[in-house]
Each structure stands twice: as structure tokens, then as C-alpha cells.
Amino acid sequence: MTATGERGSELRGAAVFVAAVGLLAGALALVQARLEPPPPLEKNVSEDMFSATRALERLERLIGDDAPHPVGSAAAAAMRERMLAEFAALGVQAEVQEGFACGPRSAGCGRVWNVVAALPGREEGPALLVSAHYDSVAAGPGAGDDGSGVAASFEVARALLAGPRPRNPVVFVLVDGEESGLLGAQAFVDAHPRAASIGAVINLDAGGTRGVTSLTRTTASNDGLVAAIAEAVPRPYGASVIGAVYGLTPYDTDFTVYKNAGWPALDFGFGEDKAHYHTPLDRLANLDPASVQHLGDTALAAVRALAEADLTALPERSRVYVDALGAKLLHLRTLWIPGLAALALGLLVPVARRLAREVGGSRRIWLARGLGFVALVGGPAALGTGLMAAIAWLTAAEVAGHAAPLPARIALWTSVLAAGGALVGPLARADAAARAWLWLGPWLWLAAIAAITAVALPGASVGVLPPALLASLLAFGTCRIGHARSGMSWGTWPSGLVVLLGLALPALMWLQAAVRVEAVFGLGPAAAGVLALLASLLAPLWLGLGRLRRPLVLALALVSAGATAIAVTSPAYTDARPRRLSLLYHLDADSGAGRWIVGADAPLPAALQAAAPFGPAGPAFAWDTDESPSFVAPAGSPPPELAPPVVEPVPDPEPPPSSGRRVVVRVRSARGARVMAMFVPEAAGLRAVAMNGVALPPYPEHRRKYVAGGEVYGIVAPPPEGVVVTLELDREAPVEAVVWDLSEGIPAAGDALKAARPTWAVPSHGGDRTMLSRQISL
User: Fold this and answer.
1) How far apart are CA 59 and CA 76, in angstroms?
2) Model confidence over 357-372: pLDDT tens digits?
3) Cα–Cα distance between 190 and 356 in angstroms, integer?
4) Could you tell me which residues come within 8 angstroms of residue 505 by beta carbon, excluding any fewer than 6 positions away?
5) Most CB atoms closer than 10 Å: which of 10, 293, 301, 666?
6) 194 and 127 Cβ atoms separated by less than 8 Å
7) Statement: residue 217 has pLDDT above 70
8) pLDDT at 637
9) Which pLDDT does position 3 carry in this prediction?
10) Contact between 664 and 691 (Cβ < 8 Å)
11) Is pLDDT above 70 for 484?
């Protein structure tokens, strides 16, 4: 090629690359615009419509004092009375269900008080259950989690009453104890009389204070549910891939209980900004009205659709689904997915075989070409992940860019793009077919992934199958056309237009995924992986830049370096987006030694280090693992008013077990603490646990990541007389266990520590607490 021809080729390549960047930028702008919830409606809209203004006024009456109301607290009891009054104002009779339940995944039990109300249907038959939880964590008032769900439930009930009576009865349960292990939902399923009549469930829960509402999970036989709501919900969001990977996240909702009960169920919620989640900032002033509007619009439409459905005839089939940026919920019977995945792979494989036949090359060369996709995704993803980890370490933050995400986001995106561009040169060196396999290789891998997930995890396949299917049609079609014209050159195939067409759909789908993954999990491996996957599709366009590739890679690297410099010199936390930092006072009742304990998921602030002689991070208790390190400092003389928990033997009413032994004790908090727990060492050979006669499920495997050398069981809202705990043990000889109780707040001796806690740090989850422990012999 002449210098002039080469220059022209580079300019054409540059034009296509600019078009691709413009396509990505436009897709990102569209995604961000569509991920904004609709504006809130005022009070004067039609009575049968959902109004966020009305819902928030009711929520103001319920939690306007911004007081946390965890299960078993006086604040929770007061909120129950206010909820009963709100139902009465709607002309609906409500009741309180008091019960004792054990969570399915929490290794804990406790007392709960659910509020239950029902609207009659035109027909007697299965009822639709609408569920939200009203308890909060101890650290915050829970305006988003899940005051938004409670407010939406009341406003949905009001809107239903303003319209014609639905076909099916609609039961509203505002459950207690969700934050302590899904206890209220379990109590409803186990013991409420209406549980026998439930035909389907809509669960509403939020994990933050803003975001669009998504369908996060469905039960397996979701055909009728998804088909019904897909046509009804005005701006539907959700993808079955979310439900497929939900178990990998640290989150859970009452949906799990309803699914375990065998009830067809849908799980809706928002929570794309975790800055306020489970902190004092999850209050009414920070709750986004537009997000409440979208939650309510979605819930009301879904409730109306299922309240008119025949709940006795829901198909025993499943569907996969994915939203078209909120414009429509696309769904398809699951049985079609393996065939479509096979079609995508079947269209790509002949193209790949023809490429291999006509280009030639050794098996080693083609193996290297095949592994190019792994390098194109793995290399940039690893670089991006490492860069974000470095920013987090240098700023002493839990995640990069927590307070100001834009610089870290730019650093991540540009570093991933630069790494992808830099890898193209070595991968394509002296390879006449480089353009062809740099485009075809990633799509072959993605089609193979789609085929595997279509069989093993069909819901997850929607993340890659639609783009892979489109790319396979483009590849097969252009290859056939080129073959028919006998003028096809693998050195210029595919054309820039084909690459751009193949890029459009994944840009929309995966950029939405990248934005939402970042919002939920922060800038880390998941976000870097999604971006690297999308960036790998630019490989043939990088190749087309020729000599312009290196300057562009360098420019992106410089931008990434500049953005990184800004990120590492920016505050890691602010008052509006604070660090989570709770204080724990622990008193060992046996030794009389007191300690201050602070979680070590980020470095200890200098002011706290100056206020007390904290040691290096490490396990604070014998049962702590390396996954839960803490900073510990001696606390001096213990407060005289703290009485340790009481453990008393109880006669065993049952015959002795055929092997091992049974230990029955009553545990109670002498100081009226709201939470208790027991550690049973592995040496005890613990076979089974029951509390107040309720058997606990097998110990959850996910908890072993944080508990070493045994098992920890919790109790919330224990009554004054305590809880009877029954343990079946393999070991005949006595073993030493530990019992403790936890109350909100710390002794006055900790005032200096609270004062030293920076303004950009707040308690979270359980909040600041006092713990008294004692060893017992079983």
C-alpha cells in the first residue's frame, strides 16, 4: 500500500472509530436519561392514580421523627399504632399478628409484630399478597429501606379503594423483623390464617434512597406473572440475569421466604445509590420523591394486573425477560432460549470455519487467536480493577470514588479503553486476518457463553444472547454476501458499518449494566469487567487506526492518569456521602475487662486513633475470621449498671436422643437488651438448634465466611422471661460456649470517641452498641 493509501485507510479507520465513540457516548447519555425516574405527581391527580406527594405525606406521619425503629423497639411499637391509624383512616380494618419465627438464612429467631389488612375481591379465591417491611436497622430511620415500600403499599391500597373492586382479594402485610433475618415474613407464612389463601405475592423493598424500580427477582414458574405485568407496568425495568446472580450479592429480601413457601412471587425495589443505605442518612429528607413515584406506579400497575388475573391457573412455565431501557419489558418462554443460543453459535461457527480454511495457519496460531478474547477482556478488567483498588487504598476508602465518583469513573473507563487498544497491536502483529478474528473471536466466545448459560442458567443468558444473536446474523449475512460476490477480503472484513451495527445493542445493554453495577457495588471488579467486555468489541476498530492507535492509547492513558490524580487527592468521604463507622463497647463479664471495637474495613481515622490506644487490625473475638477484622482498644473500668446475660438450665421434656445429648437452657437479658446471641464451638458437634420450640434451618453456609470455629445464633426482641434454646450435641463432655446481649448506644465513657468520630463518618447497620458477654458450660 502506498503512503497515500495507508494514510487514507487510517483516516477512514479514524472516522469509524470516532463514530463508534459517538455511538457509545450517545448510548451512555440515553441510558442515563432513561435511568431517571418520572417526576412525582401532586395530590390533585385522579384518586385512582398513585401520587408520591400523598404517599410521602403519609410517610411523614409515620416516620417524620427520623427515629430508628428496629424490631422489638419502643419506636417500632409506636409506628405500628400509627400504621393501624392510617389503615383506619382508609376505612380498612387491620390487625397485628404477633409471632415468633426463625429466619431461613440468618441463623436467628425472634419475636415480630406484623400489621395485616385485606381488601375484599369480587370473587372468593386465592388472594394477592402485597408485602413491605416496616422495621428499620438500629442505625437509621429507614425512609428508603423500607419506608418507601410501606408508603407505596398504603397509597396502592388507597388507589384500589378509589376504583372498582378487583377480582381477587388483596392482602397487605407490613412485616416486622426483615432486617433481622426475614423473620416477619416467615411468621406470616408459618402461622397467619390468611397464608393458606395466598395465590401470588408482590414484594416491595428498597436498598437506598433513589433509583428506578426494577423487577429484581421472580420465582421459577413466572410465566403468568411476567406476561401480566409486562403489559401493565408503564416504565418497566428488570432483567432475569439480576435474579440469576442475586445470590452472589450480600442482599436479601422477604421474597426469599415467599419463594421458599412455594408462592408465585415478584420482587420489586430501587436502590442504585448505597451512600445512605442502613445509615442515619436514610431519612425522609433524602428520599427521592421521583423514585417513590416510580415504585408506586410500578406497584399499582402490577397489583391491578395480578388482582384481575386467574391466580388458580398460573402456568407452570418460566420466562426470561429484559427491559428495553424502560420502554417495554421484553420476555420469552425459557424453552426457546437454548434454541436461539444454538442458532447464534450455529451461524458463527461456519463463518469461523471458512475463515480458518481460507486464511490458514497452524493450530498454535489459532489457539493464540482464540485466546485473544480472554486477553482483550481479562487484561483491561484486571488493570481497571487494580487501578480502582489502588485509588481506594491511597484514599483510605472502602471503594474508589465513594464521595466523588466522576474522577475515578473517568480513570476506570479510560484505562480500560487504553488497555484494550494497547493489546490490539501485539495480538494482531503480522496477521493478515487480524481484523476478521478480532471481531469474530469475541462474538464466538459470547455465543458460547450464551449457549452454556441457556442450558445451565437460562435467566442469565439474556445478558449476552441478544447481542450475540444480532452479531451472528451480521456475520453470517455479510459473509454469504461477500462469498456470492467473490470479492470478499478477510483483511477488510467486517466493514466499519457492520462493527458499528454489532456494537449498538451491547452498548445500550451493557452500558446500562455498567451504570447500575457501579451504583450498587461501586467502582470495582464488576464494573471493570462489564466495561472490558464492551471495550473488547472495539478491537477491530483499534486495528483500523493504524499509526494513529498509539497516540490515542497514550492520550487515554494520560487522561486516566490525570483523573486518577484528581481521585486520589479528593476526599474519600463527605458529610453527604459518609463512611460507615460504628462503635462497639464490649464488656467481658467473666474478666471484667472492657474494650472499644471499631470495624477495620477501612483505615482508622486519625482522630479516633488519638482518642484511644487502638491496636492493629485483627479478629476481635475468637469466632471472628480474617474477613471481619477490627481495631480494638482497652476501655478502662466497666460501668457498674451493666448486668450480664442470664443462662438457666431448663428440664428437657423430650426423651433423650439415641446418640449424643440434648441441652436445654433459657437465655435472657438481665438489662433488657434488644438482641442476644450464642456462639457454640465446633467441638460441640452441634446437630440441631431450636428456639422456643421452633427448629432452625441448617446453618447458612454464607455465614461461615465471617464465623470461625463454630456457629453463632441470634435472638431479637427476646421477652423479659427469655428464650428457651435447645441444642442437640454429638459431644458428651461439657463444652464452653459464649452468650452475649447487645443494646443500642454506648456508655458515657465513650463520649470522647463519639466526639472524635469525623463528621464524614456515621454509624451503620446495628449502629453504636454495647455488648456484654459471658462464657457458659454446656
Assistant:
1) 14
2) 888 777 777 777 778 8
3) 62
4) 466, 467, 470
5) 293
6) yes
7) yes
8) 84
9) 56
10) no
11) no
pLDDT of 5 strictly over 90:
no
CB 237, CB 213: distance < 8 Å? yes
Task: Tell me: pLDDT of 600 over 90.
Answer: no
Could you write out the DSSP letters of every residue in 153-204? Answer: HHHHHHHHHHSPPPSS-EEEEEES-STTTSHHHHHHHHH-GGGGGEEEEEEE
CA 716/CA 723 separation, integer angstroms: 10
Dihedral sign from CA coordinates of 239, 244, 247, 248: negative
- Half-sphere exposure of residue 33: CA atoms within 13 angstroms, side-chain side: 8
Q: Are 693 and 724 in contact (CB under 8 A)?
A: yes
Mean pLDDT of 488-514: 91
Burial tier of 514 (Cβ tally within 10 Å: 0-12, 13-18, 19+)? buried
Cell of 498: 457492520
Q: At 646, list the grid cell.
A: 442470664
**Per-residue pLDDT at 58:** 98
Confidence check: pLDDT of 487 > 80: no
Distance of CA 665 to the CA centre of its chain: 38
The answer to whether the predicted template modeling score (pTM) of the entire model surpasses 0.85 is yes
Nearest 5°: CA angle at 285, between 114 and 91? 40
pLDDT 10s digits, 393-424: 999 998 999 999 999 999 999 999 999 999 99
CA 582 – CA 735 distance, rounded (Å): 32
Q: Compute the residue count for the chain.
A: 778
> Distances in Å between the alpha carbon of 722 and those of 72, 207, 645, 736?
13, 32, 10, 21
Residue 169 scores a pLDDT above 80: yes
The three cell numbers locating residue 31: 441510558
Element (H, E) at 130: strand 127-133
Residue type for 574, please? T
Q: Each residue of 132-156: pLDDT tens digit?
A: 999 999 999 999 999 999 999 999 9
Per-residue b or e along 266-302, where b marks 16 or more CB atoms closer than 10 Å to that residue's CB: bbbbbbbbbbbbbbbbbbbebbbbbbbbbbbbbbbbb
485-492 average pLDDT score: 72
Whole-Å CA distances, 581 to 250, 397, 769 = 18, 12, 12
Please check whether residue 507 is in contact with residue 30, taking contact to mean a CB–CB distance below 8 angstroms. no
**Strand 319-323, strand 761-762: pairing:** unpaired
Q: Which three cell numbers mark 670?
A: 438481665
Residue type, 449: I
Mean predicted confidence (pLDDT) in 297-312: 97
Q: Helix, strand, or coil here: 114?
A: strand
For residue 333, which amino acid is it?
R
Q: Return the closest-CA partner of residue 400 out of 499, 291, 522.
A: 522
CA distance 662 to 574: 52
Pairing label, strands 761-762, 579-580 = parallel
* Sequence-separated contacts (24+) of 43-50 with Cβ below 8 Å: 47/158, 47/159, 47/162, 48/159, 48/162, 48/163, 49/159, 49/300, 50/152, 50/155, 50/156, 50/159, 50/293, 50/296, 50/297, 50/299, 50/300
Residues 7 and 490 sit within 8 Å (Cβ to Cβ): no
Q: Are 159 and 50 in contact (CB under 8 A)?
A: yes
CA–chain centroid gap for 767, Å, is 21
Residue 319: band (very low, low, confident or very high) from pLDDT cuts 50, 70, 90: very high
Q: What's the whole-number mean pLDDT along residues 597-621?
A: 93
Band of pLDDT at residue 165, cut at 50, 70 and 90: very high
The residue type found at 398 is E
Q: State the cell numbers at 226.
A: 411476567
* pLDDT range class, residue 747, cuts 50, 70, 90: very high
Dist. CA 504–CA 467, nearest whole Å: 9
Residue 440 near residue 351, CB atoms below 8 Å: yes
Instruction: Determine contact, residues 768/754, Cβ cutoff 8 Å.
Output: yes
CA proximity to 20, closest of 530, 517, 506: 506
pLDDT of residue 204: 98
Q: At 199, is the secondary structure helix, strand, or coil?
A: strand
Q: Check residue 391 and report its DSSP letter.
A: H
Grid cell for residue 223:
410465566
